[in-house]
Please model this.
Amino acid sequence: MMKRQLLTLFVTLILSPAILSGQIVTRQAGLRLGYRSGIFYQVSSDEGNAEIAYNAMLSFRKDGIQFTGLKIVYETTLDGISPDLYFGWGYGGHIGFVYSDHVKFMGEDYYFHGERFCPQIGVDGWIAAEYRVHEIPLNISLNFKPFIELTMPSFVRIMPADVAISISYLF
Model:
């Protein structure tokens, strides 16, 4: 039942930017390799002087799952370095759960009696340098996704340095 609800939520969030936007410039699917690794799908369109992208990512960690949704703005190309290099920033949030027998807080480990279901909710930031290979439909990105999350039972985690490399295929 929960898998069906997660799949429905994932599909709805993927399709909603396409429905809301009159033109889809690009769609891409890829893999993010970092602290919070996962698979993602992104749609983007031009709005004014910027390119706006909506990113949905699914991550798996500690026998759990996490869904992250981001809005990313690409305002600037780094033409001085390369015309195919773009700078992006954004924000969003995540929700999910893990199963764990302990939680880290302020450098300390707090242990439970056995594995425990721990729901999570958080706020994410996004900064990226993305290289777009036009000869083949491929994007390579070095991205930084700091986050703050609340993990039940009542632990707050701040992760200022979730650095990753993302590779995606455009279609």
Q: What stands out?
A: The chain has one domain: 2-170. Residues 2-20 form the longest helix (19 residues). The beta strands are 26-34, 38-47, 50-61, 64-77, 85-105, 108-133, 138-144, 147-151, 155-159, 163-170.
